[in-house]
Amino acid sequence: MSATAPVLTIRGLRVAYGSGPDAVIAVHGIDLEVHRGEVVAIVGESGSGKSTTAHAVVGLGPGRVLSGTIEFDGQRIDHLGHRALEKLRGAGIGLVPQDPASSLNPVTRIGEQIAEVLRIHGRADRRTARAEAIRILAEAGLDHPELRARQYPQDLSGGQRQRVLIGIALACAPDLVIADEPTSALDVTVQKRILDHLDARIAATGSAVLLITHDLGVAADRADRIVVMSGGRIVEEGTARQILTAPTHEYTRALLGAAPGIRTVEPRGRVAVAGSAGSQPAAGTSGEPAPRGEPLVSVDGLSKSFRVGRGRGFDAVRQVSFRIHRGRTLSLVGESGSGKSTTARIVARLETATSGQVSVGGRPVTALRGRELREFRRRVQLVHQNPYSALNPKLTVEQIVTEPLAAFGIGDRGSRRRSAREMLDQVALGAEYLTRLPAQLSGGQRQRVAIARALVLNPDLVVLDEPVSALDVRVQAEILDLLARLQRDHDLGYLFISHDLAVVRQISDDVVVMRHGVAVESGPVAEVFSDPQHEYTRELLEAIPGRLVAGR
Length: 552
Known about the structure:
By secondary structure, this protein is α/β, with parallel strands linked by helices. The protein is 36% helix and 25% strand. Helix 7 packs parallel to helix 8. The longest helix has 18 residues, at 188-205. It has 3 domains: 1-92 and 174-259, Rossmann fold; 102-171, no CATH class; 297-545, P-loop containing nucleotide triphosphate hydrolases (Rossmann fold). The strands form 5 sheets. Strands 6-7-8-3-9-10 form a 6-stranded mixed β-sheet, with helices on both faces. A 6-stranded mixed β-sheet has the order 19-20-21-16-22-23, sandwiched between helices. The protein has a 4-stranded antiparallel β-sheet with strand order 2-1-4-5, with helices on one face. It is globular.
């Protein structure tokens, strides 16, 4: 730790939500320091108190500081009023929030949003603010900054919007930058570019960084020190190397064991986990040869073109082919726009192919109509990405799980209820959850309900579209283990869509790497990941956070 005075000092901080007898303590008397030029990562699951702590520093969020002190550059700020905190935010403390879609004003041009920050903090006047905004966009790594300044947030990609937020946070050269899950929604290669840029800008300014993340791989790559929080308390703290190679707290060890990114890439589908002795087989990568016989799913020469307005069309998918056998998982990986989700939607008959053929169980599905299409819907089920939007908030868990049975006229009310009980048992939820609404469930519990709904019709194939990307690392590991067990029990075929190669390596037997709608590489996951042949595959693998921490 630096011998200089800390930029941020937190002592005995207690934060609560609500008031009176209903108050919930979210942070229990923590101490924390961040020094100039230092990157400190706070890691933990949802509800651990990490974001509540960050928001308390800048006076944001519904949390209420009960006791303790917060000092910035030697001055107490926990008692400052709203106007004084507004002056501090942006000028002294920059904030990079998690969700750029909700953090940027959709009806104000990008350049004007940056210019406004500069004017508010006296860093530019109306005459110079526009030119400064363009310069900041260029420094943030956006191409054509003059054009971007005239665009609205919805005209930019997720990665571009996140660069804008970083530009805003660093516009006034703050002494402290708080980055709250700044890349959690981004593809792995975009995430690496964004974090590389943030690192470079911080190095240039000498700012301190408080990085909030549930991704131990990101913390491993980017932090000087890691602070582990659980239940509103700091349970362990140390250098990145200490935490990741010799954790002392049981909770930290559990996080490391659940993190698919904290592994080194080795041949034959084996992975080394930081802090563990030796290697362990990755799920779905047994090293056995692909099974022979009739595949469950055959995709041949699949292509899909879209036309945008009156302009020219573009090819979202071009000549993609692969096979899925029963009891095995094939993953489609690639950045946003690679065509992986479009391919999956065509397999599930939610989109129609422009050309090519999809067969399930030996039967072409492209031209299915009426009763045959209805029967196909029973055999192929879909689990969506976001467990928070995938379930009807007005229905109970029992109604959600039995809805497919009612839609297909299967059984009576009593038998459907029994089926719902059996499915909840399959996904490790008790019967007491039958009467609950989605709002009463955690993200992991909601995803378990979505899986139960998908399996209640006894499908042959389940299409899983980013099913764990919205979940914390330990919940993610639980869902992946659940999917592996259900696959073994029911001999299911999985088509797994993901941009997270660490997760893909853990669950898959086979992989297809897609870029710009084309399958650039495919094969058994152990072979592709240990000896990638295409430059793009190598780029994806190099971008996995925490990939080589065990070998440091």
